[in-house]
UniProtKB/TrEMBL annotation:
Residues 25-84 form the HTH tetR-type domain. GO terms for molecular function: DNA-binding transcription factor activity; transcription cis-regulatory region binding. It comes from Actinomadura luteofluorescens. InterPro entries: DNA-bd_HTH_TetR-type_CS (IPR023772), Homeodomain-like_sf (IPR009057), HTH-type_TetR-like_transc_reg (IPR050109), HTH_TetR (IPR001647), Tet_transcr_reg_TetR-rel_C_sf (IPR036271), TetR_SbtR-like_C (IPR049445). It comes from the Bacteria. It holds the Pfam family TetR_N. This is AcrR family transcriptional regulator. The keyword DNA-binding applies. Keywords: DNA-binding, Transcription, Transcription regulation. The lineage of its organism: Bacteria, Bacillati, Actinomycetota, Actinomycetes, Streptosporangiales.
Length: 202
């Protein structure tokens, strides 16, 4: 598997996607959602043609948007991060001091659901923080903002930093993988809760 995607700049890809016709954007979104679901439930071996069939589009549509499977892996991962950013923005608008826990739990769940994709990117020597630095930084900034709110409200330990929180999320992924709970939402949520409870004030 190549370590370089045909278009390594996600920002360029995003600008290109925004220039698509409305129907082409909808087809791309349908392919992304279908690919994410199939990768999570059936593994990475599912073919682009099968993804096209399940998405209800022609094979040419998938191959036009994602000429290589690595591009689809990367797009699925970036789409996941962008979805989390949207959730973070919604949570920020609520003013809830517990919102950081809601977001972190969702981050862990999304990471567990996309573990196969993340592993494939790692095997291909992709790091999302390098491949999509703006998106990754935006998510970290939202986590930091919600953490600041939680600090002010006293709902989280006053000595914990955003970097430590992000490290705990990564640790939760590893714990879920170690327990073989990637496809068991109940078990993965319990593991995440045990880890996140460590952020509560003593």
């Amino acid at each position: 598997m190549s370590s370089q995607p045909p278009d390594p700049d996600p920002a360029t890809a995003t600008r290109r996607d925004r220039g698509l016709r409305a129907d082409a954007r909808r087809n791309r979104e349908r392919v992304l959602r279908t690919a994410q679901r199939l990768f999570a439930t059936e593994g990475l071996g599912v073919s682009l043609d099968e993804i096209a069939r399940r998405a209800g589009v022609g094979p040419g549509t998938v191959h036009r948007h994602f000429p290589a499977k690595e591009e689809l892996y990367l797009a699925v991962a970036i789409d996941m991060l962008e979805g989390l950013i949207a959730e973070a923005e919604t949570l920020a608008a609520t003013g809830d001091p517990e919102a950081v826990f809601t977001l972190l739990a969702r981050m862990v769940a999304a990471g567990a659901e996309n573990e196969a994709v993340k592993s494939a990117l790692a095997a291909a020597e992709f790091d999302l923080r390098t491949a999509a630095p703006d998106v990754a930084a935006d998510l970290t900034r939202h986590v930091a903002d919600l953490l600041d709110r939680a600090h002010a409200a006293g709902t989280v330990r006053d000595d914990v930093t955003a970097d430590e929180v992000m490290a705990l999320v990564a640790g939760a992924f590893a714990a879920i993988r170690h327990a073989g709970a990637e496809t068991d939402q109940g078990r993965s949520a319990r593991i995440a809760q045990l880890i996140l409870d460590g952020l509560r004030p003593r």
